[in-house]
Amino acid sequence: MPVQAPAHTPATRARVESLRSRPEARVLIIGGGINGVGTFRDLALQGIDVALVEREDYCSGASGASSHMIHGGIRYLENGEFRLVKESVIERNNLLKIAPHYVKPLQTTIPIFSTFSGILNAPLRFLTHRSGKPEERGAALIKMGLSIYDSFSRLGGTVPKHEFLGAEASRELFPKMRDDVRYTATYFDASVHNPERLTLDVLHDGLKAAADKPGTARASNYVTAVGMGPDGVRLRDEITGEEFTFRADVVINLTGAWTDQTNEALSSPTRYMGGTKGSHIVLDHPELLEATQGREIFFEHTDGRIVLIYPMGDRVLVGTTDLDDDMTSRAVCTDEEIDYFFELIKHVYPSIAVTRDQIVYTFSGVRPLPSHDDTAPGFVSRDYRFEKREQNGSTVISVVGGKWTTFRALSEHLANDTLEILGAKRTVSTLGMYIGGGEGFPETEAGVRAWIAARADETIPAERWAVLLERYGVRADIVAEHLRSGADALIGGSHELSTRELDFLIRHEQAEHLDDILIRRTSLAFRGLATGEFFAALADAFAEAKGWSREERAAEMERARAVFAERHRVDLATGLLV
Ligand SMILES: Cc1cc2nc3c(=O)[nH]c(=O)nc-3n(C[C@H](O)[C@H](O)[C@H](O)COP(=O)(O)OP(=O)(O)OC[C@H]3O[C@@H](n4cnc5c(N)ncnc54)[C@H](O)[C@@H]3O)c2cc1C
């Protein structure tokens, strides 16, 4: 993929310079996925001098490729992972409270086509964790799992209990569902609507925590850890190509599925990881959207994998696969995976036709799982652990595993271990602490309308406030202040984005590339709205805000086209699948 380096803007220079001008900290975190950023926030809140580097953009690895579920992981009960399920449920209940702008309750329905199958296999799997195709999970097994799940769900939350419906009531509720459905089981989990923005909010909170001690919490995207020697970790600025050495007492390798590769680059090879790839497609399909009745449809496909059909706004998310991955090439959704998704839709909704031109976006990532010999990918532990070693005068901690759901707990445990190494004490807990624009976020639809009505005027009308509130939570007020402080214009005539907002994202959110804007600062790519004339108008506005020449603008557009085509299989000119 051609990646040319456009000129550094002052905002870019400032953050790389913040690392270069004082190339040391007590802790260096490598990796800006949710676990890296969560740990950064936790340590910054304890007053620790901490730096973070991410070689691409924040949330561009597995954290930007998840199924968007914040869930206890009911299916991990089958693996006997009770500790993880309990922790996940506590974290889910906590995230619903502390990040209400992005984490919402999710009604989940399991369609069930048999009564007893699977029940004998389940205890066997508790003991062996071996591969093999499970029998279809029957109603009795699902009922048992949901009852255990309910008992965990009371921990720090008020999520309603599960409910079973018989065949007739199920068919009435889901008229397009396969007509041999015998039961449906419905329970509550949570979904994260905008994982990329939640990651940025967590990062922002970390940076803000150190506001009274400038320079003690620093983070930069597009900086890679490329080596380690007696003087520290060698870092490379991916925009200028310049390298420098950074020294830290504790180095935390939080590079997810790339953990072994990073350790190899740091001259200390490991064999901890055995990541599995998973892909998703996003469909613009009103009939399928309606057939879900606003619920996540979560079920077992013919191969025993648990898969999902999931309404997200006016789109439908379908996933996912679980395939061993050797990390030699970038994960991308393949034609076989698309066929698999179409089959799974047919498995539950046989009368609904789906075609490739209804796909508006695809994404794929690799789960940071431990190496797992002959255990089937779906049954590999989703729990996490920390591996420590001494190297070149630093303690290096490698993190193996870690789901989105448990990021706060993982960050807390990891920060505790780090504090102990540093001889420092925890001063504040992140449990129950609001994240970014979540504090004061209106709790009801009526509350949202009132919040918007109280602010809308000629300069920022209600449609624009609705976009800002959904995108930033109550931090929308801060963004709006920026919009009002200069001449502003909508980009491509759409309420989705304006020139001043772009300026805000460049100055305050480290947006470097067009794909940062389309994929991770907004949800335009996910919703299939990044293409055609809008893309050209955005490129013009972005180039102007960055002060780029025509050549730099052209190179940047080419980069975005390549990212969308090669990683997401979307042609930015037509919006169609490539
Ligand atoms: C298909 C799929 C579905 C999933 N669904 C769910 C779900 O519904 N719910 C849930 O809770 N979890 C889910 N997960 C798991 C979850 O997304 C991940 O476990 C979690 O996001 C991992 O975060 P991380 O920060 O550890 O790793 P990552 O997000 O992968 O971050 C690692 C970062 O390190 C960076 N990096 C790599 N090498 C270097 C280097 N040398 N220098 C600097 N930076 C480097 C990478 O660019 C990357 O951004 C899913 C995962 C996948 C793949």
Structure at a glance:
This protein has 578 residues and is of the alpha+beta class. It has 18 helices and 20 strands. It has four domains: 171 residues, FAD/NAD(P)-binding domain (3-Layer(bba) Sandwich); 120 residues, no CATH class; 92 residues, D-Amino Acid Oxidase, subunit A, domain 2 (D-Amino Acid Oxidase, Chain A, domain 2, 2-Layer Sandwich), CATH 3.30.9; 127 residues, Alpha-glycerophosphate oxidase, cap domain (Helicase, Ruva Protein, domain 3, Orthogonal Bundle).
Please explain how this structure is put together.
The protein is of the alpha+beta class and 578 residues long. It folds into four domains: 171 residues, FAD/NAD(P)-binding domain; 120 residues, no CATH class; 92 residues, 2-Layer Sandwich (D-Amino Acid Oxidase, Chain A, domain 2), CATH 3.30.9.10; 127 residues, Alpha-glycerophosphate oxidase, cap domain (Helicase, Ruva Protein, domain 3, Orthogonal Bundle). It contains 18 helices and 20 strands. Strands 3, 4, 5, 6, 11, 12, 13, 14, 15 and 16 form a ten-stranded mixed sheet that branches. A hairpin with a 2-residue loop joins strand 19 and strand 20. Helix 2 packs across helix 11 and helix 13 packs across helix 14. The protein is globular and about 70 Å long. The chain starts with 9 loop residues before the first helix and ends in a 10-residue tail after the last helix. The protein binds flavin-adenine dinucleotide.
